[in-house]
Amino acid sequence: MNYHEKAKMGTKSVWGGEKDYLVHGASQVPIVPSVAYTYDDMDEWYEVATGRKKGHIYGRNTNPTVQAFEDKVKVLEGAKAATSFSTGMAAISNTLDTFLRPGDRIVTIKDTYGGTNKIFTEFLPPKAIEVQFCETGNHEEIEREVEKGCKILYLETPTNPTVKITDIERMSRAGKAAGALVVVDNTFATPVNQNPLKLGADLVIHSATKFLGGHADALGGIVLGDDEEMVEKVFHYREINGATMDPFAAYLLLRGMKTLDLRVKRQAENAMKLAQYLQKTDLVDEVFYPGLPTHPNHDIAKKQMSGFGGMLSFSVKGGVDTVRDLLPQLQYSHRAANLGAVETTVGPARTTSHIECTPEERAAMGIPEGLIRVSCGIEDAEDIINDFDQAFSYVKNVVKI
Ligand code: PLP
Hints:
- This protein has 401 residues and is α/β, with parallel strands linked by helices.
- 40% of the residues lie in helices and 14% in strands.
- Helix 6 (139-147) packs parallel to helix 7 (168-177).
- The radius of gyration is 22 Å and the shape is globular.
- Bound molecules: pyridoxal-5'-phosphate.
């Protein structure tokens, strides 16, 4: 057994995957910016180039800093294989492109991340790939559609931005029975809170740009699985098509991940406290957080997640006008199209996760125009709640809605 398998998540975050890359006695993984690797021995070069011997040839294919990043996430997800990408969207699109062919069918849920949804609505249909959308959380409908036959069952749980929950274990059983590949975007949960491979999924995807990196200063994506041949196919598609992670980004993401467990636990604590505060706030219509007993799939979240994550959303009375008045008052939040960072970050779905969609498409996904997504940071919860409180008071007393 690999010694990391026995370690807890905090230890894995710090030590996982780095050992093989610590050269010259360094205690930190170095950035290797070299594009190509030189060989004096022509036979050795040939052996490495043809995959018979370990080593590096060219940066679009492999890079030591990037591999250290992949190895750390492998340890965190408990996966046998991984391949990384320049962004989360590259991870998603390259994975779909690797396996889908004209005439294939994919079953998914209505409210995946906006960029993913765009792939389903704009880019797959012209390639003669049928996309079947199901109501998120309607497990019976997903099972019925999967049973009819599909190449991929694509899930995201919790979803962006209304944090809806899908039962990964149950859906993986349905996918397996129909011979489908079950792919889960685990960006919102992080490996600290949820491990889809252990729940039966075939592939797990992360936008590393978010919680994995945690500092909003590097883009990246990753796909992981236990079937090495399956992941190798995705790697091969990526090495040819070129959506490769940059070694500088890999370094920043590696450094960020050392505190992943600490950050994510604090973010979940803050999210729970903020969600409870928002539920008692009269300008708030509805609060969406899987940790709240009022969440429709709280029981499934409790079963498959070890923590409920740092993401929540809420809708406000007065819709877009209230959003416009409220958000600029917040002192301790970035108003930005990002999530998972150490700073609390807020934004309306219509300008962040679902900017690509029309108001009608958002409405069909159950996303009110007055919905605010909150990615909780690692600040003190009391300060964040006081900050929201003064912003709500401003809207009530100064704008007088
Ligand atoms: N998956 C989810 C759930 C996301 O929220 C995002 C981005 O917000 C992505 C994938 C895409 O990631 P990236 O921005 O790194 O391409």
